[in-house]
Amino acid sequence: MSLSPQFGSLIPSQAQEILNSNYLQFNSNAAGAQNTNSFAQQYLPEIYEQEVERYGNRTISGFLRMVGAEMPMTSDQVIWSEQNRLHISYQGVSVVAGAAGVSTITLFAPGAAGLQNVISINDTIVFLNPATGAETKAIVTNSGAYPAAVAAGLAAGAIVVTSLDGVSIPTVAAGVGCKVFVYGSQYQKGQSMDGAFAAGGANQGRVSVEPQLTQFSNSPIILRSQYVVNGSDMAQIGWVEVATEDGTSGYLWYLKAESETRLRFEDYLEMSMVEAEYNQVPAAPTTSPGSEGLFAAIQSRGNVEVGFTAAAGLDEFDAILKNLDTQGAIEENMLFLQRQTSLDFDDMLASISGGFAGGTAFGLFENSEEMALNLGFSGFRRGSYDFYKTDWKYLNDASTRGGINGINSVEGVLVPAGTSTVYDQVLGTNIRRPFLHVRYRASQSDDRRMKSWLTGSAGGAATSTLDAMEVNFLSERCLITQAANNFVLFKGI
Prior knowledge:
Elements: H1 36-42, H2 63-67, E1 69-73, E2 78-83, E3 89-97, E4 102-106, E5 123-129, E6 134-143, H3 147-151, E7 158-163, E8 178-185, E9 213-218, E10 221-230, H4 231-234, E11 242-243, E12 249-250, H5 253-275, H6 294-301, E13 303-306, H7 313-325, E14 332-337, H8 339-350, H9 369-374, E15 378-382, E16 385-391, E17 410-416, E18 419-424, E19 429-434, E20 436-441, E21 451-456, E22 468-481, E23 488-491
Parallel strand pairs: 1-20, 13-23, 14-16
Antiparallel strand pairs: 2-9, 2-18, 3-4, 3-8, 4-7, 5-6, 5-8, 6-7, 10-22, 11-12, 14-17, 15-16, 17-23, 18-19, 20-22, 21-22
């Protein structure tokens, strides 16, 4: 038996003006219909005065409140620098074998952008060939990091090594995926680093390695919304009592509409931070450059896991962990999942442990399992990682991404908890910031985090001759996704 859910119309039913259907009519009687004129005047109908919230709590915001922070900014652009890796390694190298254990390794092609040779003479290296499984340890005897070596004919991106076992590294063409990394150095007793260069005459001191930073940036976008109700309808009393999510209730229909406009706008603030992308071809009606949202940041700089299922079991999840090991290895992580993916995780965990929720330290929630559960999280530990799992309503709501499966569907995100270290160019030092946080435009003269104001001449406003109340909303903000290499985006197939 197949289930065919009826989600109703996804088109908002709210109208710009109050609907006549919200009121008893005494001045009309449609042909063929019951005489509402006499009925309404003579008989008391059984009317449910309370509206029915058939979709429950319809708001989807809350994701960023759980994982992020909000900080002011005073510019059109946020620029941050992320530290690169500490240790020296090169991927995709080629080798030309020589005699008596000597080999020349080309670390990168001449003129390769963004690559520098920082390997010093007397460094000890490990050479790995994944195609054959060969592993060779060697000492560097010459390096293109030295200008004198380049002048003597050695390529700037090459090193000359002598293997410790006296066997030359076999010749390997580029494209095999061979790797070289430095694991230390090796000097003679009493040897100075200011000795004679192998090619003669030059200083063979250590190559100083400057820290390398990668810069990223994002720009804020301006979000706006408005609700308008004329003065006459503001004074109109309806027969259905409405209740708003903030606790306000009454028989004035505009109260409901105004509240929903605000809630919808607050949801847009979160949705735009998740979905936003750069405007590749700015054109009318807006020439805004756009912004980089969470999904775009992870797809550009993070990890994408396609087609995670319970059938694959722990093997597939362990592959994710192994990849995280190669990145920042953040110990605490949060999983925000759509329903099916959440059930897949439950199936995977249930297959190995019936009480997976008690197997974690809950450090993120002050070591309180009750606090985590109250926020909708269940926790589990795998390897050296703690994970806190919860359903993400945005991925389940039928009016957003809910019900969308298959190719490129978003099924969840893994967000590292805590903070990362970035370099502040203004302060000239490293600072710690949450991996995920919102920057909003603000100064002493104007705070644009979440502005609301009234215009018109009704509802307490006195700004124009317009016989209406205009409720205006505005925010200017962007999302900062730091160290996106530690994030995982789960997508369908």
